[in-house]
Structures are given as structure tokens and as C-alpha cells.
Amino acid sequence: MSEAAAPGARIALVGNPNSGKTALFNALTGSRQKVANYAGVTVERKEGVVVTPSGRTLSILDLPGTYSLRARSPDEVVTRDAVLGRLAGEAAPDVVVAVADATNLRLVLRLILELKAVGRPMVLALNMYDIAQRQGLRIDLDGLGRELGCPIVTTVATRKRGIDDLIAQVDAIAAAGALGHASQWREPSAGEIREAHREAQRILKATVRPAERPDTFTGKVDAVLLHPLAGLAILFVLLFVMFQAVFSWAKPAQDLIDAAFHALGVLIAGHLPSGLITSFLVDGLISGVGSVLVFLPQILVLFFFIILLEDFGYMARAAFLMDRIMGGAGLHGRAFIPLLSSFACAIPGIMATRVIDNKRDRLTTILVAPLMTCSARIPVYTLIISAFIPSRQVLGVLSLPGLVMFGLYAAGILSALGVSFVARRIFWRGAVEPFLMELPTYKLPDPANVARNVILRGRIFLTRAGTIILPIMIVVWFLSTFPGAPVGAVDPAINYSLAGRIGHFIQPVLQPIGFNWQMTVALIPGFAAREVAVAALGTVYAIGNADASPGMLATTLAHHWSIATGLSFLAWYVFAPQCASTFGVVKRETNSWFWPMVMLAYMTALAYAAAFATYRIACGFGLG
Amino acid sequence: MHDMLAEPIASRAGPARGGAVRLSAARPGDRGVIVEVGADAAGAGHGVAVDELQRRLLEFGFVEGAEIEVLHEGAIRRDPIAVRLDDMRVALRRRDAQDVWIQLDPR
Ligand SMILES: Nc1nc2c(ncn2[C@@H]2O[C@H](COP(=O)(O)OP(=O)(O)OP(=O)(O)O)[C@@H](O)[C@H]2O)c(=O)[nH]1
Ligand SMILES: [Mg+2]
């Protein structure tokens, strides 16, 4: 085979959910797509390339997992269309790599029989072979290969074992120019599914001897974690510990970042003549960006917990425990994981709703996803909490700020349940979709994977700080600086600036909920991204009174706002529709402007009502 | 030829299926073999047609001959349930399990 002439080939990774397709994809192509221990991690097709030793370029397609080609949810449609070559402008793959969890072959064998009807040349990757060996599972590879009529490679995707072998097999098929046959696939009937199961069962019996040391760990752990009462209690304790840790673990690092930015501000202010440039650097850039960056440690701590639980295999259990509670509000059990991802950010959460088959269930989930407390709210929450909530111990062990944070998360969750309950009644009175979910075996989290994912989250946060927050901060600084104060003015300069005028103009609308004009100014850029409001407050107040530094923002706020105003701001942020990209993704996923508009309307109404009630009640208690 | 276990008990008649019970009525600790996956839990208000539910159950491995054991149940109204299905663990709601009939092993 001549090196340069080897034509490229297109490869698709197909298999049951959670069989390690993405791990294999990452190992093959060196990408870093998300891998986690539950079904439905991948919801989009992702492409990557690898060059074989013979010089052939293989373009590899990672696909959402499925149990059948009879796609029922949007993510499974992606897989079916890719395998059948139904996507516009895209032919069927040259080689299909069926990825199987070697310890759980029964369902994938039936899927493979379906794939054979599609007629593409196939290679079977028996993944998780390390676990199979540990369990003493004996698989007659030659026999299985003969039964299925395709080459078999054993792989350990997470350790990059068997990858070269897999590439070699795929390369050989591509080199032979095997064409396969035309697709004979059509939706199987119930009888045909049964028939295929019998065939799969027969092959299994003939080629696989049961594990000598089957996994007993999962059963033992489940006895505790899925216990009807203890399980729920553990779930809540876990969430609680998570939020406590967000506050206590992150503190030292936060103090450090804070001090560094403060020192930087002082240093620059000391070395530059006071003037516009210095004001821009110190009040605009450093105080704005610093007030957001200071929350990086908290975001890392939160994600450390979430990723640990995902890798362990706990998420599906949490969905199990929550199903009935969510079902009461008309949410589908499968909505749990998308909603949980929304704790990171509503955007991946909304995309993850693709695993929900039913359109109405999916829309309900999309509508309430932004009510989950996303990480962009953390800066706002922590800022206000540290300004207005005394750092006291409650009941000896719990910190009051942690408790309030927990309460804010709970408020988000409860309101999501309430909204979905109402939405189902307003928009449709639908029947309930079936709920079937695999509970994966527990795996010890892989430290490298956890570290990689935590770093990834940190990078996303920093990128946002750099690409969204920074430019907006420059605009905010500009608006709050020009025009300057007239000679002999008594009020702070910002009062006379454009921002000040805008704030004063809109303030009457927000006055009933206790917001002052500085808050109004900060809310406007906050529509682009929630955490910008913190940076904007930093800028507005740093300019308003010159000695503020990012860390002192809390102190400044405590000085300028009443407690009632602080609480009202928190309540506003539980519901505030302040994220332009969320509306963008809802538009994309629902393919209409109707749903983003519904979302905007209901969130604004809720935010205003909640802030109003909070402010009035707090004033009633004399906190005004 | 067919595997012995994979042979469904062909009784399409009424609900009494030769000593088999619905999975939806089983309790933790119950174990046995699936003897029939039907398509007649009509009027249950499913979001999908009953034969669609049947196919989904089949694709998930709820198929005649599979060994099944109920492992756990939820706190509220004992729902959903977690079952061991051959080598796999699956969670499902009781309402979706009505059409799965199991022949319980003697305890
Ligand atoms: N021990 C072991 N674990 C593996 C192996 N391959 C994947 N895993 C783990 O299995 C889990 C699932 O891996 P993914 O790559 O996310 O699975 P997937 O098939 O892409 O799943 P979906 O995208 O949900 O369909 C993760 O926790 C991986 O770390 C392997 O060869 N050995
Ligand atoms: Mg994947």
C-alpha cells in the first residue's frame, strides 16, 4: 500500500450507553470529550481524526449511546442517522466500530445483530476488558468473532490499551476496500426483537462463561445508597456537605486571590500618575475582573464533587431516588441528570435534555433548567452572603453562610418543581412517558479524569471571564466614567455619568423591590452573563468611592445597602433571566423564539415577585 | 432450536397467567424468570402506545427467559423499583412494569 495514496476512511463508534465509546474516542484521537459513569453523557456527534501507521487518515465519529437503531429520542436519532448515512451530505461510515462493555454483552449483541443488517463492515471493540479479566469472565474471542462474522479487539479505553490493535484492524478493512452490502435495516417488530434476543442469548451461551468473581461491590453499596430512607438522607447530606465545602475549602485560596488583586491595584495606582488610564486599569479592569476571578476556587470545589459523583456512578442513583419526587411535579426521571448539569451551567443542561424521548417532557425540562443554580450565580450569592449574613456557627457544626447557600439552591430546585407542575397544566395535559434507566456498576473515580474535568471547568470559567466579562467591563467602566463630574460637584462622579443617568432613569421600576440605582446599573450588563453583575458592582462602587478593592466590595455593599435590599437582590438572582446565551441555546434546541420568550417572561415575573415579597417582608421585620 | 428458558408461556388470554405475577406488583427480594412481556396494559395513560412500550422493554432486556430480581424500591409509594436483569441493573417505574410477567422462584 503506497503511503500517500491511502484514501481516508470514516469510522463510527456505536454501542450501548456507558460502554466507553467516548473514552475510546478520546484514546484514539487525543480529544477530551466528556466521559462519565452514567448513560447519556454524549448527546451530540463529535468528530476527530487519527492517522494510521500506513498513512491513512481515519475520521472517527463519537455518537450517543443507544440500545437500538429504532431511535426514540433526539440523541438516538443522531446515532441512527449517522449509521444509516441519512444525514444531509454525509455518506454512511466506511467501518462501524461496535463498542461493547465486555462485562455486559447481552444487549449489545442484539444491537450488533441490528447493525449487521445495516451492512457496513464492522469491528467489535470489547471494551472494559480490564474489568472482565478482574471478574474472571471467559470470552471465547475466536468463537464470538466467527458467530458475528467480524474481527474482535479487546480494549481498555481508559488505559489506552488495545488502541493500536483496533486501529490496525480498522485500517486492514479500509485497505481491503470492503464495501459491505446495501442496508436491509428496518424497524424491528416486537417479535423480531425477541428473535434477535434469542440469537444473542444463544451466542452468549456458546462463547461466554459466567464471571468467576462477579462484581458484588455494586450490590453492597446500593443496599445503602438506594435504601428508601437512608438513601434519600445520604443524598441530602451529600448535597449539603458539597455546599459547606464550597465555602470552607475555597476560603484560603479566595483570600489569596483577593489579596493579590488588591496588591496589584495598589501597585499600579502607586506607579502611575492618577488619571484616566489608571482609573481604567484599577477601577475598570482589576476591580472588575478580580471580583469575578475570586470565585474560581469555589467553582473548582463544586465541580470536584460533581465530577467525583459522576465518575463513581452515583448520578443514576440520585435520579432513581428523586424520580418520584420529580414525577409529582410532572418531570420525567431522566430530567434529573440534565437538571443536575444545569448546576454547572444551564447550557450543557439544556443540551443534555436530548436524552428525553418525549417532546413535552423535554420542553418542560428545558423551561425549568435555568432555575437550577448555575455556577455563574455563585459569585453573586457569595458576594451578597458575605456582605449580609454573619459568619456564625449554627447548631455547633453548620455555618450560617453555608446554610443560606443551601437555602438558595433549594429555592431554585423547589421553584423548578413548581414551574414544571404549572407548565404541564398550562401547555399540555399529557400522559406520562415510560422511565427506564440503567444503573451502572460503581467504578472508583479515575484521579486523572477527575483532575482533567475539574481543570476543564476552571478553564471554561476563566475563558468566560476573559471573553465575556472583560469586554463588558470595559464598556461598563466607560459608561460609568463619562461624562465626568462637573466642577464643584458634591456627589460621586459616577452620579453624573451615562451609567448613573441610565440607573436613575430605570430605578423607579426597581425601587419597589428595594434596588438602588447602582444595582440597576449593574443589572444591565448582567443580562449578558450573571456574574458580570458582580464585576459591574465592583466597578460602579470602586468609582463611586475610590478606596474599594475587589475584596472590599462586600464591605462596601454592607455599608451602602440595607439588609432587606441585600436579601431582595438574592431573591432576584434565584430567578433572574440574566443570561443571553441560555436564550440562544433554547432558541436553537426548540427551533422557535416562542419558548425563549415564555422563559424570559416567566423568569422576569418570578424574579420581580420574589424580590418584592422578600424586600417587603424584610422591611416588615425592621431590616429596611 | 430455542433455548428452554427463552420459550414464552403463550397465554394470551386473561390476566391470570399460570401463577405468574406482574413485575409492577413485586417486592424487593422477589426473584424469578420473565415469562411474558405483553402489550395490554391499556388505559394506563402512557405517553406512548402500549406496543411501543413493549418494544422498549424488550430492547432494554426485559425479554422472556431473562432472570430478574427486585432489589430496591423508592420511598414514596414504593416507586420506582430497581431490578437486576441478568447481569444488568435497571430502574423503572411500577406503571411501566405492568406488562412484565414473572414466574417467581419458590422462596
Ligand atoms: N475500567 C474501565 N473503565 C472504562 C473503560 N472505558 C470506559 N470506562 C469508564 O466507563 C464510563 C463510561 O465511559 P464513556 O466513555 O463516558 O461511555 P460512553 O459509551 O461514551 O457513554 P454515553 O456517551 O453515555 O453513551 C466512564 O466512567 C469511563 O471512565 C475501560 O476500558 N475500563
Ligand atoms: Mg459518550
Summarize the structure in words:
The complex is a heterodimer of chains A (624) and B (107). Chain A has 624 residues and is of the alpha/beta class. Chain A has three domains: 9-214, Rossmann fold; 230-375 and 392-432 and 447-459, no CATH class; 469-620, no CATH class. Chain A has 26 helices and eleven strands. Chain A has helices at residues 21-29, 74-84, 106-118, 129-134, 141-148, 163-176, 190-207, 217-225, 230-248, 251-271, 276-293, 296-312, 315-328, 336-341, 346-352, 359-368, 377-388, 400-427, 447-481, 498-510, 517-523, 532-544, 553-560, 563-575, 580-590, 594-620, and strands at residues 9-15, 46-51, 57-62, 95-101, 122-127, 138-139, 152-154, 208-209, 393-394, 398-399, 436-438. In chain A, the strands form three sheets. A six-stranded mixed sheet of chain A has the order 2-3-1-4-5-7, with helices on both faces. Chain A starts with 8 loop residues before the first strand and ends with a helix. The model of chain A has no long low-confidence stretch (mean pLDDT 86). Chain B is mainly beta and 107 residues long. Chain B has one domain (2-104): Roll (SH3 type barrels), CATH 2.30.30.90. Chain B is 9% helix and 29% strand. Chain B has one helix and six strands. Chain B is globular and about 35 Å long. Chains A and B meet through helix 3, helix 7, helix 8, helix 13 and strand 11 of A and helix 1, strand 3 and strand 5 of B. Strand 11 of chain A pairs antiparallel with strand 5 of chain B. Residues 17-23, 35-37, 39-42, 64-65, 127-128, 130-131, 156-158, 311, 443, 446, 449 of chain A line the site of guanosine-5'-triphosphate.
